[in-house]
Amino acid sequence: MDVQQSFGLAHLWAQSDLAIRLVAFALVLMSVTSWYLILVRVVRQFQARRHDRAVEAFWAAPDLEDGLDRLRTLAPDSPFEALARQGAAAADHVRQHTYQQSLGGKLDTDEFVTRALRKSIALSTAQLESGLTMLASIGSTAPFIGLFGTVWGIYHALVNISVSGMATLDKVAGPVGEALIMTAFGLFVAIPAVLAYNAISRANRLELSELDAFAHDLHAWFTTGSRLAAQPDAGAAREARGAKNSVSLRPSAGAA
């Protein structure tokens, strides 16, 4: 019993030096941060399941105001609500300033609505990608931080052996245990972060694809007064429509 207690985690922590404790503290902080980001995104994904229903309710509304109210009720503070509100505000601005001799009045409805939708998509993209950089950094650096703890633990063991002059188990087991724990802890932190990064990135791509399709429908409705109807060759039609409008609707690196 005494031997098992002497080689427990409490003993390893008590006999470790400052470097090992800093490595352990850094890994704990990274683990807490990654799990916080993961839980936040899980909650958001449950909320995002209502977006499809909210979009269908929007198009089923008798008028624009009622549609915006439905989006506000079913998907509050969502990228879809923000996109519809930005498009409606842009279209209303154009109607109010069509006959005014100003810079705003010189823009046609298509161009002005397009800019508003692009801006909304860019802001939503930035919001969806928040936290991904942190997860990627944790997933890529945690194993190396754990490896540093491993190297330092082995170095600590060698120093103890050289000082004592005897390679006994009680002189080596503690530092070697520290090294193994730091390696395992680094992997424990990195693996969930990497898996979560991949899952969140895929979910973001799907949501941005749906948001882009909603933006094209909104653009058609605000500029022509009708939503694009689904056709048998909807995939080809959407591809052609995307080729025509992707430069104007989807944010690009050179977009203002």
UniProtKB/TrEMBL annotation:
GO cellular component: plasma membrane
Keywords from the UniProt entry: Cell inner membrane, Cell membrane, Membrane, Protein transport, Transmembrane, Transmembrane helix, Transport
Protein transport as UniProt keyword: yes
GO biological process, one term: protein import
TM region positions: 20-43, 144-167, 179-200
Membrane topology according to the record: Multi-pass membrane protein
Location of the protein in the cell: Cell inner membrane; Membrane
One Pfam family per UniProt: MotA_ExbB
InterPro entries registered for this protein in UniProt: ExbB/TolQ_transport (IPR050790), MotA_ExbB_proton_chnl (IPR002898)
Chain residue ranges for the region called Disordered: 233-256
Domain of life: Bacteria
UniProt similarity note: Belongs to the exbB/tolQ family.
Primary role: Involved in the TonB-dependent energy-dependent transport of various receptor-bound substrates. Protects ExbD from proteolytic degradation and functionally stabilizes TonB.
Protein name listed in UniProt: Biopolymer transport protein ExbB
Naturally occurring in which organism (per UniProt): Pseudothauera rhizosphaerae
